[in-house]
Inverse folding.
């Protein structure tokens, strides 16, 4: 529920004479407009409206060149008629004039703003918000529009956007106290009295003569809430600010919560995540490190800390951190999974295998854990075990196409071309243009004595990479296999020519390297 039941905004006036001097003298239009402004400035609004309408009529009927006005000038007159009606609380009529203004000159920011004022006065907050946002499209630094959006969003209980626009209003007009005051009311309404008092104090600092526009609002906002409800307000506001990419403000709210409740460990975890995303590693580690073992975020915080240390090239320190955590949480599979990665980084593959084995015991349905176990088995030369682990991983994640490719490659190494072809076929359904998958599937069909299926795959490889030597060789062999001797020999001759080119290039490169490393081999040396 909002602080106030109704929103009150003042329509904006313009520096009407700027750029319009040419029609201000010597014409009925100029005379009528001048009279209208004089009446408007002394609050004789009925009289002002008559003069402004006379000015619009004169613009149409006067034949003098000086009496011709631009769209901007006509829109300004509509805007002042709307203002005169608004000051008389005739919002329906004012709305019609503001609509005329924005239709006449869609770039006039003040007209969009006053249209928003009229919608807000009629309780149409969704349309008011749209009009104020359109205002900022034409004048992003207009204080009044940011402040009005803050009030509207506060009314509909969208705390994040309200906070952002109040903040923007403060930036647009640093000496203005009112956005700070309403920001304080928003905090106070949700029980965040510390934040509220900071806002009120800051309001008086920037504008010492500021008087609350509604003293009863501050009294009404003094609602007693439980500490948990207040804490949830901080979280909710921080989350809303992060979603709008206002991370600096979200950080400020988390720190305010922690200043109030130092043992609010979820806030420390979320603040650590925020700092880590900004690559403020040391600060992130400090926040994560303050989370004690009894808190539910402890393990996840330690995992995040180890990830940061791994990025900082400190794998031993990262491993020791997780090892200590695992002693307290021996049933957490993610700890062992990440310990295995760190052991692999350090070149300790047998130890990494033991860590991955434990991870798979604890996370039997995790395809990533099974994949990593198969990977380390493969590194250790345990191909049968690697195959079993990868089969399980594919069973758990049938759409993991890169894993299917690895499994297919393993089948090829073991001459199980039928099983390999099945895996590569699945991969090509999703990566039809992948050169190496086309080649591997072609190789499988060639070995399965199905050259008719292999040939189009090898040809596709060569269209993408004409210097793919193995594809040339196997394509020639397949054509020979089906009895097309001339074409088969042609591809094999291309293969021999490419192989000789590659051999010559290798020899030249090696010769250059030898000359570069031994100056006595250089000509004339």
């Amino acid at each position: 529920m909002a602080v106030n039941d109704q929103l009150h905004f003042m329509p904006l006036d313009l520096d009407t004479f700027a750029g319009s001097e040419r029609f201000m003298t010597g014409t009925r239009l100029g005379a009528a407009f001048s009279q209208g402004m004089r009446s408007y400035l002394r609050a004789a609004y009925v009289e002002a409206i008559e003069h402004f309408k006379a000015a619009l009529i004169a613009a149409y009927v006067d034949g003098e060149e000086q009496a011709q006005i631009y769209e901007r000038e006509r829109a300004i007159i509509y805007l002042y008629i709307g203002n005169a009606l608004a000051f008389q609380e005739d919002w329906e009529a004012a709305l019609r004039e503001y609509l005329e203004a924005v239709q006449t000159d869609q770039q006039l920011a003040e007209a969009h703003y006053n249209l928003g004022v009229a919608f807000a006065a009629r309780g149409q907050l969704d349309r008011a918000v749209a009009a104020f946002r359109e205002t900022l499209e034409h004048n992003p630094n207009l204080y009044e529009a940011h402040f009005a959006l803050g009030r509207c969003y506060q009314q509909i209980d969208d705390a994040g956007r309200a906070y952002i626009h109040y903040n923007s209003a403060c930036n647009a007009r640093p000496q203005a106290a009112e956005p700070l005051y309403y920001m304080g009311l928003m905090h106070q309404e949700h029980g965040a009295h510390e934040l509220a008092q900071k806002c009120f104090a800051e309001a008086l600092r920037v504008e010492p003569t500021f008087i609350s526009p509604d003293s009863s609002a501050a009294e009404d906002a003094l609602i007693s809430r439980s500490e948990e409800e207040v804490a949830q307000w901080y979280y909710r506001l921080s989350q809303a600010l992060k979603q709008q990419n206002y991370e600096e403000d979200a950080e400020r709210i988390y720190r305010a919560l922690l200043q109030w409740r130092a043992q609010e460990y979820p806030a420390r975890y979320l603040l650590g995540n925020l700092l880590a995303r900004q690559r403020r590693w040391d600060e992130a580690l400090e926040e994560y490190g303050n989370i004690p073992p009894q808190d539910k975020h402890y393990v996840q915080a330690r995992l995040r800390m180890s990830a940061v240390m791994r990025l900082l090239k400190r794998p031993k320190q990262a491993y020791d951190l997780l090892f200590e955590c695992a002693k307290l949480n021996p049933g957490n599979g993610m700890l062992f999974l990440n310990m295995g990665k760190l052991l692999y980084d350090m070149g300790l593959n047998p130890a990494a295998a033991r860590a991955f084995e434990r991870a798979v015991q604890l996370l039997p349905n995790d395809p990533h854990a099974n994949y990593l176990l198969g990977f380390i088995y493969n590194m250790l030369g345990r191909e049968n075990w690697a195959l079993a682990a990868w089969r399980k991983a594919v069973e758990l994640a049938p759409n993991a196409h890169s894993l299917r490719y690895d499994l297919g490659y393993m089948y090829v190494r073991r001459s199980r071309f039928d099983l390999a072809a099945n895996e590569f076929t699945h991969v090509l359904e999703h990566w039809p243009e992948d050169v190496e998958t086309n080649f591997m599937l072609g190789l499988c069909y060639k070995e399965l004595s199905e050259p008719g299926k292999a040939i189009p795959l090898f040809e596709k490889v060569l269209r993408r990479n004409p210097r793919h030597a193995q594809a040339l060789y196997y394509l020639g062999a397949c054509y020979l296999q089906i009895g097309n001797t001339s074409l088969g020999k042609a591809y094999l001759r291309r293969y021999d020519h490419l192989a000789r080119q590659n051999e010559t290039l290798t020899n030249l490169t090696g010769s250059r390297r030898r000359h570069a490393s031994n100056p006595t081999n250089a000509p004339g040396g």
Summary: Confidence is low (pLDDT under 50) at residues 63-67, 511-525.
